[in-house]
Specification:
Distance between the termini: 15 Å
Order of helices and strands: HEEEEEEEEEEEEEH
Length: 162
């Protein structure tokens, strides 16, 4: 009974640590609107800042899947480009998604990112208006704190069983 009580106390402490860690490290970033960009040698200038509202996002992710989401009006055409190197130019080869926003106005697109920093360019167009936004996302392969806690708990339980 004493072993069970100590194991329950340890699990409770680890559970509280996990929750504290999960909520403490999350800081959200905003997409930055930019004035102009060059894609394949053609300069695109921003004429609006209200075509699309990109949701705040976690710039340091722990999986290779990043979800870009936001709100816009119906009929806005959105093109999403990615690149790895800050000095590299955006090209049509970097386009990962092109779609038109539907009736609801909300959108969400999964973007696969490689390890390291990925720059995401969002170009929104409707009629003659253009909005250009840039996001910076960092992905590092590492074992999550939650997974580490699971291993510790498993090892503690196994040690009580011996």
């Amino acid at each position: 009974m004493k072993k069970f009580a100590s194991m329950a106390v340890i699990m409770l402490i680890l559970f509280n640590l996990t929750l504290t860690y999960a909520f403490a490290g999350e800081t959200l970033s905003k997409a930055k609107n930019i004035n102009s960009i060059e894609i394949d040698g053609s300069k695109i200038a921003s004429t609006s800042t209200s075509l699309v509202e990109i949701a705040d996002y976690n710039s340091n992710i722990t999986t290779s899947a990043f979800v870009l989401s936001g709100k816009s009006s119906e009929g806005v055409e959105i093109s999403i480009y990615t690149k790895k190197d800050k000095k590299e130019a955006f090209t049509q080869n970097n386009i990962v998604e092109k779609f038109t926003v539907g009736k609801s106005g909300y959108f969400a697109k999964k973007i696969n990112v490689d390890e390291g920093t990925t720059y995401i360019l969002v170009v929104a167009k409707k009629d003659s208006d253009v909005q250009i936004s840039m996001l910076k996302v960092s992905y590092q392969k590492e074992e999550s704190f939650g997974r580490w806690i699971e291993k510790v708990i498993s090892n503690i339980i196994n040690s009580f069983g011996k």
